[in-house]
Amino acid sequence: MLPKELLMVRKRKGSIIPCYLSKATIAEELIHLYTQSIGKKYKLILRDREALEGYDFKVVRGLSTLLERRCIFSSDSKVPGKDIREFLFKQGFVTTFQAREKRLEEAATIFMLTKEEVEASIFSDLLEEQVLTDFKTIDPLDLIRDYNLSLTQTVLFDALGLSFTVSGNHQQIFRKIKYLGLMYEIDEKIRVTGPGSLFKKNRRYGTALAKLVPEIMNAKGYEIHAIIETNDSGEPRVFTFDLDSNNKILFPKTSEPITHFDSMVEQQFYQDMNALHLGWEIIREPNVIKAGEYAVIPDFGFIKDDMRLYLEIVGFWTKEYLTKKVTKLQNAQADIIVAVNEQLGCSIEDFPHDVIMYRQKIPLLDIVRLLREAEERHVEKQLQTMEQIHISSDVCTIQDLAKTYMVNPKTIARLDIPGYQVIGDQIISQKLLQTVKEELKELEAYNEVEKILLKHHLTQLVLDVLGFRVIWEGLQPTKVVEKKKD
After folding, report:
1. pTM of model > 0.90
2. SS3 assignment, position 128
3. Under CATH, to which class is 264-379 assigned?
């Protein structure tokens, strides 16, 4: 992105068109200038650069702005210039050459420098006095690509709105939209609200919108349309801006890394929930959910068996944004929990679905409660629609049977299965239980009892159900005896 005063555009028939570059001649000369200027003061580099500004000073300064982001300037002064200036200015004005020399000598004594070093250091912290110590070079064509992208982004600072279509890269684009905090809606196109349409133009929002452009351009195909409000001859006017992937303009094909979490609140929540080991898989930004004419990408998804719940965290809003958010949540074709920051001034009544208010951390117990309630509703629904199941063996596990009938294990555990009994995570036939009970009557040593249990693939939990108890000596089971009847 470039400062707006360096923006180069043409305005024609209601359209605004950036003056893109295609030839790398001036880029080559500027790269050579900065490469050869290591060790020079910035003010000398500026003097040398002026000789190239006959080409077009806005283009030269725009390219130089990008190159200087690849430079490291530093002061070679032993003492910060600001400290020396403060000392000298506090002593008051000087009116003669002799007084000036005396003042410099005083400063030299105070800062343990020579008089010449003091004089050279007075403004050494200012950029024009600093020295170029390092420059990360770049291919001229890559510089042109960066410049063309920067022109495009700078135009969009004043966008009233931006719409686009893309082929591919949808998930990354929506993630970028959410990461940047942009407001959008979907019909036949994806429409992103521009900074010029907010209550007050917000440069930060305009910068965020501009940062979305590289992600759009990374799609295999794209079409961008924007409405731009900008000054023309001192008067505000509205222009259209259009760009598509069929252009012959040099643009970079890179993607900025996206921070996995939008905030520490989200990162801490993700870590804490995983540490609970609830049996739910937690996925960051799981998928796009259709919500009428809009799309919702929840911050988190909770998945268990065929259950899907989502969590949307609301940490930013305007009145219009809140209205759209509520509309999307009402029309979302999914169960979405909403976590709302108390400091936003919203209330539970402003939102549909289950709402959790939080301040610094999202309360885990509230999320766990909602997940358990959702699982309970899921189990109850399955119980109502479950037909009689059939078991061909004397012993099977709840998990295996749940997989066979594709239901929640809790559903299987609650079923009344004629001729069978649920013991721990096993379902055992009454016939087998009676057989085992008869076999155990004549035994007492635990190791003999254990052989019977292993033979029938049963666990020690069966013993309690059959009316036996285990006698322990220290940490070792030694005997199995029948429980005394009351």
Report:
1. no
2. helix
3. alpha beta
